[in-house]
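We examine the record.
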Amino acid sequence: MRALAELPRENGTAALQRTADSLHEALVAAGAETALLPFTATPYTLRLAGVIALAGGLLYFRLLRRGRAAAALAAAIAVPALLLAQLDFQLPVFGWLGAQTQYHVLGRVAVPSPEQRLVFTAHYDTKTDLLDHLERAPGELLGVVAVPLMLAGAGAGALAGRARRREALLRRLAGVAAWVGLAYGALLFLTLSAGAFVPQRSPGALDDGASCALLVKLAERLAQQPLARTEVEVLLFSAEEVGVQGSWVYASERFAEPPELPTAVLNLEGLGASAQHGVLPSERFSLRSYPPDPSLVALLEAQHRERFGSGLATLPLGGATDARSFLARGIPAATLFSAESGSLFPRGLHSAADNRSRIDEAALDQSLLYLLDVARAADARGLRALRSDP
């Protein structure tokens, strides 16, 4: 737990590689077939995205204030398109800067004649941000208003000289849009880039070190008592905290063709906060979202009621986790999280506050038993035949 709950493991650092080696050794000791899976990571993608957003906001503001509406309109189109191409579709527009090799850690508990595959995932990399998940939500929502307003403002600026009767109104709209564009760029910079300057780094105990420790223990238990017809994989990702790129590369390569066995993915986030669990209601991109697989959610719900006597917690909004990489490829997936006491979702993540004191180890033990229940129920009933009734 020390390596996974007390020490930062940021992308692009030697600490991340040491953690990968430690997890590999732990899975070997657990009795799993284990491998380190190399891929090309771009650790500075999000930091660069924030800088580009700030520069784009400044450029848009300057152009519009100088009356260069056509150029401002081009900037209002180009900068969001650039960010969407890199962050939503993982196109190497600017993310190739600083590219390097990182590793996922895979542990497999095989059975003689597998009929299906259940994959448990979590991420072992960490990140430090200026704002936590809830605090940065207004900035994400502002984009829904800011980008259309920026486009409208630039268009208004272009029309102002040709529409004399409405010139003052159009220029006022362009002026408001200029300030909105500047504010939005600055807010994205604070959200995506300013964490690089925070001196106290996050050790990532809940996000997502405890989940990784839990999955090593799960592999050990299943290696001692394998399932009858289900191959289980424990897959520990890096590069989740830089735009979920690690799992995106993995899923794109592994599932370029349909899997040879029926496969489902259960992603863990924040396990260890409590013994109350929930499922994210959607996995979001900027322009699209995917619901979790209903059969997998039904299994999680049924086993939760059986073990804890209560249903899963619900959240009003979804998130962007490793599960979305699989859902985008048509692979059934869901993200399971722990609800911290007094909050639907843990606060203070991506900061030094996410330390080992946040972990309820008794609850983590209960989560282990719950996941074993889920694995055994899936093995007994089949991944594609799950229903909400126990």
About this structure: Strands lie at 33-41, 100-109, 116-123, 230-237, 263-269, 277-279, 283-284, 289-290, 333-338. Confidence is low (pLDDT under 50) at residues 386-390. The two ends are 34 Å apart (CA to CA).
